[in-house]
Amino acid sequence: MRRFLLLPFCLAWLLVACSNPLNAPVPKDLGNMESLKPAMEKLKPEEKELLAAYVVRHSVGAVFGKAFGVQPDPIPEGMTVGKALDEQRAFAERLKTEEAAKKLVLEQAEAQRKALVEQMKLVLASRVIDITLHKATYHDGDVHSTISFEFEIDNKGAKDIAGIKGLASFRDKFGDRIAGVSMKTEEAIPAGKSVRVRLGKDYSEFNDNDRKLVNLDVHTATFELAPEVILFADGSKFESPKGVRE
């Protein structure tokens, strides 16, 4: 008799267990994902997003990954909604940690770069004198449009400079970076003296930064020279760490 009294309670427990969306199996085949719909309807909004992200990562993501030669990571056998949610939470947390670490490295590199630029200002002072555009005439071999820059560089140090290689960065009057131009010159700059250096780069009318660059007002714009290598006349040289270069 007691056995029959317990039967309804057992059946009720089984029904509750079976209706628990976390116990629902996650199909391996993308074509069978419709079977997840009843379980999805019982999940919280945050859980729905997590499950959808898990399915995309292991099904659609695996298909595209395989097409591009990346080892696929399909949905494993016996995966349930609950396990999938736990795995996706852990994956999202790892991703957040990795992104935070990358951001920290970039911030540290930028801080070091700025500190290096400030140190170099004690040795070098630089400014833009003129920016001009030469448009190709397409006559007599003149087929390239170019932007010409004229810089004035002061050697504020105690040693003669034999050459400079670095990056010239241009910002508008709002401080927004417009472009970075590679700079390389073997112009000798005696200690305590100034020289004018002319450099150029190819111009494209379809490049937005190039158009902004030629229209830059040198009187209101900000110019910054970040040297990578400075060669001195006595054979010594300064070389900035690679991680600090812009």
Which residues form runs of ≥5 with pLDDT under 50?
A: 1-17
**Class based on secondary structure composition and strand pairing:** alpha+beta
Helix content: 25-40%
Task: Give a short account of the largest sheet.
Answer: 4 strands, antiparallel
Shape-level CATH architecture of the largest domain: Sandwich
Going across the major beta sheet, what is the strand order? Answer: 4-3-6-7
Number of domains: 2
Cα end-to-end separation: 83 Å
Descriptive keywords:
5 helices; 7 strands; 246 residues; 2 domains; elongated; four-stranded antiparallel β-sheet; 38% helix; Immunoglobulin-like; single chain; alpha+beta; three-stranded antiparallel β-sheet
Description of the structure:
The chain has 246 residues and is α+β, with helices and mostly antiparallel strands. The chain has two domains: 2-97, no CATH class; 121-244, Immunoglobulin-like (Sandwich). Helices cover 38% and strands 26% of the residues. The protein has helices at residues 2-19, 37-41, 45-67, 81-120, 208-214; strands at residues 124-134, 146-155, 161-171, 177-185, 194-202, 222-232, 237-239. The strands form two sheets. A four-stranded antiparallel beta sheet has the order 4-3-6-7. The longest helix has 40 residues, at 81-120. The protein is elongated and about 85 Å long. The relative contact order is 0.11.
